[in-house]
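Help! Submission page says 'invalid entity' but I think these are all valid:
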Amino acid sequence: MLLKTSTSPHVHGDTTVRKMMVRVLLALLPAMVAYCWYFGWGLLINITIAVATALGCEYLMLKLRQRPVNPFLSDGSVVVTAVLLAFCLPPLAPWWLIILGTGFAVVIAKHLYGGLGYNPFNPAMAGYVVLLISFPKEMTVWLPPFILSELNFSLIDTLNAVFIGVYPAGFTLDALTAATPLDLVKTQLSIDVTIAETRNAYAIFGDFGGLGWEWIGNWVFLGGVWLIYKKVISWHIPVAVLASLFTIALVFYLKDADHYASPMFHVFSGAAMLGAFFIATDPVSAATTPMGRIVYGIGIGILTYVIRVWGGYPDGIGFAVLLMNLAAPTIDYYTQPRVYGHKRS
Amino acid sequence: MRRLYNFPGGVRPKEHKRESTAAPVARAQLPDKIILPLHQHIGVPAKPVVNAGDRVLKGQLVAEAGNNISAPIHASTSGTVLAIEDHAIPHASGLPAPCIIIHTDGKDEAIIGYGKPRDAGILTPEQLRHAIKQAGIVGLGGAGFPTYLKLANEGKKVGTLILNGVECEPYITCDQMLMRDHPIDIIMGLMIMQRALGINRAIVAIENNKPKELELMQEAIYEVGTPDIELVQVPTVYPAGGEKQLIQILTGKEVPSQGLPMDIGIVCHNVGTAYAITRAIEHNEPLISRYITVAGSVAKAQVLHVLVGTPVSHLIEQCGGNRKTLSRVIMGGPMMGFALLDDEVPVVKTTNCILVNSVVSDVPLPSRGDFALPCIRCGACAEACPAGLLPQQLYWYAHAKDFDKVQDYNLFDCIECGCCDFVCPSQIPLVQYYRYAKSAIWQQEKEKVVADISRQRHEFHKFRQEREKHERELRHKQKRQVVEGQSTQDDKKSAIQAAMERVRKKHEHSEVSPKNIDNLTEQQQKLIEEVEARRKKKLEEIKPENNQ
């Protein structure tokens, strides 16, 4: 009798793209909770809008590209893109900003380049950078920690702010927002205020980085370590990003502590932690060889520092990741591991 | 304690070895038919020495080695040769191949001298190799390379003999059970190998998930072995039993790319081969049977002692499998085995496992999904690759049919162990792509050879044409010179006139004239005239154009 055939191996380890993506989302969960604790409901609204937009755009693009909808829509990659982008947007960002950024990420950065597996740039960061360049005002309305809970800014108030731009009586957006620690250090340095003076003068600094921010960073860190433990990501990129950022910051800090922030401040501020564990590790757009991942991570760490300190933007993770995305194929080519039975060079 | 080395990558699939090792090894029932493929080994096929209708006895030579890289085949039981014809064989291609088919008579009558103990101590290494060759012994670990060739030690290149009892693939337990049942014979076989090679150093490697067999083998070494035989536990990681990986674990050395273990002074043999050698040398039994694991969707998974040539369907039925509900039958392990197209194929010398899947409980292990997502470049495959390759790049270029690039990334160092495939979250059939690329490259090279030959032939043809043309011109020139010497314009004219005269005379004298226009009716005559007129007109029309 004739039997079914298949080619070896006939067994599979049962890992799927969906499982990987679900784990990434789970790893982000503690940081999400912490974020809401410090900055209110905004993040959840951002995530909801972004995920809905992303799923809609994904569906549309799959239909247009005549790809099977179900396996791709359910692989979870587009949800991860949306959540990561939402994480990078200010908590009271207007709804259209989120839709615009997510739409760009999914439609242009992902699907027009070939969809899952083919996009050369990290879609979340492409969306983020487009928003940052196009809408600098809306993209910099950050809140100081706890202000919303102190002012009893409710979920309804947040929804009103996001969707119709209306604030409760007595509130204005300008009154609520404040510069982020990275931003503050940068603007204060430009008017010759030393870092120590800035830190003393403002209440938004914590032990290392920004108050609140550093705790979100801690949770991101723990989530990232769990991902490494679960082998969803490898240690190379996060370690390389953080170590290089720390090292370069240390060099300048030791040289001139008044004008260069401490390495711990850099590591625990802005999107450094999120970038190292969740953004730079996007497998599709990152380098894939072990040595290549280290080179790629170091590139991101150094570029982030350069942009933060000497560039025009307070944080540089997004630009650094995109620039290194561009270099990933070349890095891979020159960092091939030695193959069994070939000479050690 | 020997220092062990790591090999990169590897995976840890569920072992599933308990199911088939609970019961002791049973003898497989004698089938009605024994099918002996002539090509069960690496090298050229064996040549039959019996004819249809001949009665053969157990252990009788039925096919002799085709040349030096080949192995003879012996009848596994007594019976009558039904036919020597094409039959389905266990091969990934599913194509039939020549087989000797024996109708068994149930008497299991052996040739004279079969199983008779003999004193092997007096045999020289050359005689040992000869006897091993005559017994039809090939590597029983799966490759099926004629064993005697790997027991020659010219120039004393080989210094270490590794006996592979690792058996790292899930489900496969035949070597484990062999070590449990016959540890002494295995060690004796090892010592025969040592004598043939003229070396003392030997390492017996067993995975540390077989503590019982480790102990039994250690005892056997104490009992009959020498202190130079070292027993080593290796970690349970797939593919620790792969030859290249085992060498790396035990010695830290690597077999050079495209080379052989012999190049670094090592030779590897399987425990099953060692046992077969003992049976052949000490008991005068050629290789006609072996241990085979039958596992998966069968009522009773177990290891059977099977005659070579027994149909797979026979074994499945004996272990309580339902042939009607079969979905897939895999020969070998789930990582590197191949799916059979037909369960009527026989088991061969290199068959170690029959893994049965039925529609009732399909795939006892999770298998790859049907829909592969695109590669997300996660690099899990590269982390799992024991050869240090970049499977994602190989896939990328194999997919794009860029066969130069895929070789740049060392496609031919891939051992097809399946680790990359096993870990791939996009469930891409990676190994299938590599096999495809390899065969496409082989095909291209073959075509290139053919193309080279035909190009040479074409070039020679052109050269010959040129030469002949040149020679012809030369001849003509010479002739013309001869003719031109005597002929003038007038001569030519008179020659033409003479010819015309001849033609005219011929016409006048000719008595033959067309008959079909003699008795024409008026109508016919009219028709002909019309045709003639039309033709004339047409000719006049064409003429001026032609002159232009």
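Support: the input was valid. A stray whitespace character was the problem, and the output above is from the cleaned input. The two ends of chain B are 103 Å apart (CA to CA).
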